[in-house]
Amino acid sequence: MPVPAPNLYPDFNVIRLSHVCLNVTDLEVSRKFYTETLGMQITDEDATHIYLRALEERGHHCVILQKSDQPGTVEVLGFKTFDEPDLDRAEAYFAAKGRPTQWVERPFQGRTLLTCDPMGIPLEFYHHMDRLPPIHQQYALYRGVKPLRIDHFNCFSPDVDASVAFYSDFGFRVTEYTEDAQSGRLWAAWMHRKGGVHDMAFTSGIGPRLHHVAFWVPTPLNIIDLLDLMATTGYVANIERGPGRHGISNAFFLYILDPDGHRIEIYCSDYQTVDPDLEPIKWDLTDPQRQTLWGAAAPESWFKNGSPFVGVETRAPQITASPIIAP
Amino acid sequence: MPVPAPNLYPDFNVIRLSHVCLNVTDLEVSRKFYTETLGMQITDEDATHIYLRALEERGHHCVILQKSDQPGTVEVLGFKTFDEPDLDRAEAYFAAKGRPTQWVERPFQGRTLLTCDPMGIPLEFYHHMDRLPPIHQQYALYRGVKPLRIDHFNCFSPDVDASVAFYSDFGFRVTEYTEDAQSGRLWAAWMHRKGGVHDMAFTSGIGPRLHHVAFWVPTPLNIIDLLDLMATTGYVANIERGPGRHGISNAFFLYILDPDGHRIEIYCSDYQTVDPDLEPIKWDLTDPQRQTLWGAAAPESWFKNGSPFVGVETRAPQITASPIIAP
Amino acid sequence: MPVPAPNLYPDFNVIRLSHVCLNVTDLEVSRKFYTETLGMQITDEDATHIYLRALEERGHHCVILQKSDQPGTVEVLGFKTFDEPDLDRAEAYFAAKGRPTQWVERPFQGRTLLTCDPMGIPLEFYHHMDRLPPIHQQYALYRGVKPLRIDHFNCFSPDVDASVAFYSDFGFRVTEYTEDAQSGRLWAAWMHRKGGVHDMAFTSGIGPRLHHVAFWVPTPLNIIDLLDLMATTGYVANIERGPGRHGISNAFFLYILDPDGHRIEIYCSDYQTVDPDLEPIKWDLTDPQRQTLWGAAAPESWFKNGSPFVGVETRAPQITASPIIAP
Amino acid sequence: MPVPAPNLYPDFNVIRLSHVCLNVTDLEVSRKFYTETLGMQITDEDATHIYLRALEERGHHCVILQKSDQPGTVEVLGFKTFDEPDLDRAEAYFAAKGRPTQWVERPFQGRTLLTCDPMGIPLEFYHHMDRLPPIHQQYALYRGVKPLRIDHFNCFSPDVDASVAFYSDFGFRVTEYTEDAQSGRLWAAWMHRKGGVHDMAFTSGIGPRLHHVAFWVPTPLNIIDLLDLMATTGYVANIERGPGRHGISNAFFLYILDPDGHRIEIYCSDYQTVDPDLEPIKWDLTDPQRQTLWGAAAPESWFKNGSPFVGVETRAPQITASPIIAP
């Protein structure tokens, strides 16, 4: 099995993914999409940034929209640690691994450690973020797809084996993976910290790039409502793939594109993974049901397009097997 | 407008579509599909026929599976009249139109008039069918997609204008239609008697052939359940198109194929059409959202394949415009 | 069986219930409730009236809110006929029955005949109402419970046998009924014209009074959304009964109260009743599952409260059996 | 605030609740209920025990039905630890607290530590349970309410403050609680380890007794399906409370009784609680919306009945405030 054994006793404790900062062209256009269509709540904004949270979140933000002259790129992926000392342990850990580290100032967050993974993905770790009053029972606020929380990141990696090894070493555990039977290498893997199918996933491709960020919604009917809304408010071309059931994760999904082409997954109903002895589920690259349990193929754009990380060079993947499976 | 004005005072009163007789290869294989996957209830069976009803129906059957050496063909489409004298009025009407008529014996039905439309589609009309006790509140019987009732037929016609004119003349009313702007001809039309979007629809194509028969289910989640079931019980290749929302009819849909390739639509949530002054809704053939509101194209098979009526020759359609819209 | 045989050949053709005019205290308060909570669309308003339609309706209105010094009363129940001559036939019919008739002017409606039933319920019949463009696919307009159409009226009658006989005679057909086994009299009956379980129902009680007007919504989840919304926007005391599944009608339901105490049912998923030979389903007054299939009792208020018709005296019911079934 | 600060660094690591052993009268009667109505999967059975798992679980069992001459009692509540050494640390911890400890043999489990909490609730801790192949994508197996996993226990405690203090000390974290404003004492509290609203909750009452065990289902519609099924298969009297939305936890719920009167909650859609700095939400004992957000009162039986732990004496609660809130 190409999946490394989980490191159950990592040097520091990351509890979950937390937030993403997306570079966009026009804050007004993005604001309209993220609030009226996605239904997220603005928690702060100024001339260059909009901070958003989903409805059950009490941390200040899970998405930052940043006005940029490099729209369509991603600034950073954020993660929350269990406690403050984890940040110092993380700094020591990454430094020992030869990764660059620096302490950065972030609004609404406490001490924040910035580093990057071996592919170049910028990662930031914090323990404290400003806490906000609960709004999950203010049902008059629910709009659009009624997003409850950020669920996961999925990134293209040119070397999924290397990416998985790196995150495994500080405690991410693989729940499902796709193996390229010919090379015996990983083609994709789903890894978690918080007890769901993933906080972070990697797919073989030109990378590093963010493939998508996903938000959790209550039921598949919210996804159908979103499709109806997007289809009749000028966003029909922003519907990329779905709805469907993933083979991998068993989740119900929809992929859409924001006004700058950042891909967003709307996601619900995967399964609980808190058992440290949970056995990873293996899928074959040639099994079309891993993509969509119901058999529908993903469009070519879904395999090709992604959001680069700002200032990070990409390279071609090591695996040349084609993931695109005809219908 | 190419749609004829409805005939509000037809010579006889058809109240709704009623049943279809499908020719199949192997009754055991079909039985398994129709009862375990679709979830229909067997009301009678013998060596050559299986009679089925959906869960809220009290008439004896809405589907007859008939063992045949011409599997994949359709024997007849059935309709129910308001009263017995309507049958005699129907006979006189069709005879006056030059259509063949004969009285036929059908198990579980009273007097039954057999005729065919100008394209050759065999039609039978009856008033009385054996009535069965209600089972819609025996929830332990619900299985598969939990079908509640037969909803409509959809047929390929080589001349949709002529088909629509024929059914309009005895009272079918158009609710929505697609016009080929170039020729000014109808490309498709949806016609009803019972107060939904359609009892019968016609689509331009090699015909006459049955495009599909549709069953009404409670909610879109039943359709998602069916997809999950089919995908994991050996029927993934029988999923042809969907799930999605139709532009036309606004219904939530899924198209699947039975073991002989007969196409079945699972359908819910269209709208009420009992107003005789309901204005038909016009769609343009070039608008991809008429097929699927969310923009997904139908696969080529959906435009090409259909079930011939047994012994009825087909011919090419008059309209040459391509309905196949690339994604 | 205490249910009269249906009159399949009535003197005139009523196709469905159409609208209700409710007297209210404060148009602003009612407007907020009907648009933000119920989610209906305003089609016209002036200093004394607000006209509303549900999302799939193309007729101008299904609810008229009328500012009144007798708030909590009902002005009239409206019905649509198949054609214009039905109105003249209706006038002759009601006059022959000794009912008062007059032609009244109604905004947005064509010729309108006003009469009342033997209990005193004011009824108006029209054929033409102004037609509006479809909005059912403008999903950005959907709010609150996402009402699709008016579904039915339910009235208290002091003599359900007499009420049922009266409406049967002009074509309403009984689908389900509750018999008081001791007296052999009807305790309640559900009667339809449009092919659902009812356009009009009667329940034994101090009457005539409107028990409720019902609106059809897509799925039970819309009802759950409404409950969450009302519970967190100051309307928790306006939730009276439910959610639940009715034994009678098999529909999923919720009863709520508008700001003047008019009871509104939110309703979905009953069954199709277009067959003229559909057998009525009989329920026993002592069977608690007729109220709620799941066994929960209705609160006392549900049996006691209703909206009087303005200027119409009420009287006590003939049946003294108690319909209130303890939990 | 009467809630103790969470112990973020407990002596040993419990990751989640795991299973319950229920004493029953008749295994056949219970088997039918747990498999056909609840829809659980049998993983093993003999003359005296039936082992069951829910559909997404890979551990061998979450419910053990044990034939007993003390039906209606509970044998033990089970919890899973992060690793094997946690068991030894747990033994030392409980011994130091003066709790009895012993190592017991349990089929399908590895080393198992039995102890009891200060109220007398028997608790067992293990790390290893036999692992089974995934079945969550074998959709033909889904029946009844389609249970996905065990979610939590809720127990009556005569002294909720003491119970909460005890479980807090080994790492359970309070997410929501109800305070009796008069006495300043806890009336109820919800505590978790796995990242949901609770693994264990305590309510003031004659105790210790198990109030209910809860199972997670995909959506509210599964709960509606269960109600329809129970109502029409002879279990209508086993429906105790709901469906509804809890104020506390925000979950959609239904309470039912198994054939021996053990209360089972069907539960979905609470929220994620992995943040160690998640602020507990406080509710007032006099707020009826904490029970049911929509305002409906719980029946008296719900406050009174529970399953004793076999051989454990109960005592009256310290708080005398009445939790029973009239509708």
UniProtKB/TrEMBL annotation, chains A, B, C, D:
Domain annotation VOC: ranges: 16-128, 149-269
GO terms, molecular function: 3,4-dihydroxyphenylacetate 2,3-dioxygenase activity; ferrous iron binding; lactoylglutathione lyase activity
Keywords associated with the record: Aromatic hydrocarbons catabolism, Dioxygenase, Iron, Metal-binding, Oxidoreductase
A Pfam family reported for this protein in Swiss-Prot or TrEMBL: Glyoxalase
InterPro entries, sorted: DHPA_dOase_Mn/Fe, Glyas_Bleomycin-R_OHBP_Dase, Glyas_Fos-R_dOase_dom, Glyoxalase_1_CS, GlyoxalaseI/FosfomycinResist, VOC_core, Xdiol_ring_cleave_dOase_1/2
EC category: oxidoreductase
The protein's Enzyme Commission number: 1.13.11.15
Cofactor dependency: Fe(2+)
Annotated CDD domains: HPCD_C_class_II
Family in the record: Belongs to the extradiol ring-cleavage dioxygenase family.
NCBIfam families associated with the record: HpaD
Protein name, UniProt field: 3,4-dihydroxyphenylacetate 2,3-dioxygenase
Species assigned in the record: Sulfitobacter albidus
Taxonomic lineage from the root: Bacteria, Pseudomonadati, Pseudomonadota, Alphaproteobacteria, Rhodobacterales
